[in-house]
Amino acid sequence: MSKANLSSSGNIILDLYKWRKPLVLLTFIALVLGAVISSPLIITPKFKSTSIIYPTTTNSISQALLVEHNPYRKDVLEFGEELEADRLLQILNTDEMQAHIIQEFNLFKHYNINREDLHANTWMNLAFIEHFSFRRTELMSIKIEVLDEDPTLAADMCNRVVDLIDVVVKRVKQKRAEQALVILAKRDIDLSTRFFALHDSLEVLRSHGVLDVSVQAERLTEYYAKALSTGNNTGARALKKEFTNLAQYGGDYFRLFEELELVQEQLSIIRFEKENISVELNSELTNRFVINRAIPTDKKAYPIRWLIVVFAGMSAFIMTLVLLYIRQTISTANIE
User: Fold this and answer.
1) What is the pLDDT of residues 30-52, one digit of tens each?
2) Closest CA to 273 of 193, 185, 166
3) Which residues face 134 on adjacent strands?
4) Dmax of the chain from CA atoms?
5) CA quadruple 109, 159, 283, 269: dihedral positive or negative?
6) Whole-structure pTM over 0.85, yes or no?
7) Are residues 138 and 82 in the same domain?
8) CA distance 271 to 181
């Protein structure tokens, strides 16, 4: 180490020793003030409750349990990954979720916010952000944290947030499902009307003796050839008349029968979808796996008193030292 560095280090030590009284006194005063300010008399302590949940890969009962040979079918017991976790975060951060919690726990009163205030909603949003935290962890779970002066209330609110996930999702699904049911019901009526119209038309053709075009044509051809080979002219003429009748109505029968089968197939699909949607509306499948439910804690999370005291002491020590150096520098300059 050079002589200059030794001299500089020596000067600093001498200065610290010279200023020991104001440094110790002001640092001590700052420590005392920090302890007083961070005490429960000044800052109300808050307790933190935490819940940890995982998203599911599916929340559709019909897709997960009822539809066989579904290429998009997922295991109902499988934990969700990044995409599902992000979706769950979006649900947690919705205005609807916030409104449920505010109303159920009367948070305007609890946070001393006047509802009549012009900016009441803004103050409530800020208070909600301060006390509620939703974040995704590295393991793709969702951590829900709630701060409050009452540890029991903090745990209750945290657990209620977890339970409200299913409420919000069901409300969204129900609205969409009801719209889908209205569309499917109208389509069912239209197809049913068409089905009965086709059925009535086929009954008219059946009254003309047309029952099954392909089978009748095969049998008539066989009998007509046999009648000609045996010289049965009367039978051949009768069969030829049947051929004429089949030729007249057979094409329409075949076309109507194919359309009837198509309409019947579409009706089956629509009614199957209606049944699946009805199952979704009348049943519940949870949208989250709860790994850890919140419980009241007996240790405050805010403020961190020792940190405030240490920070206050260090800040006072450094600021006092800087001010003393500035004062010394000014005094030296004036003397010179």
Assistant:
1) 777 777 776 666 666 788 999 99
2) 185
3) 144
4) 150
5) positive
6) no
7) yes
8) 10
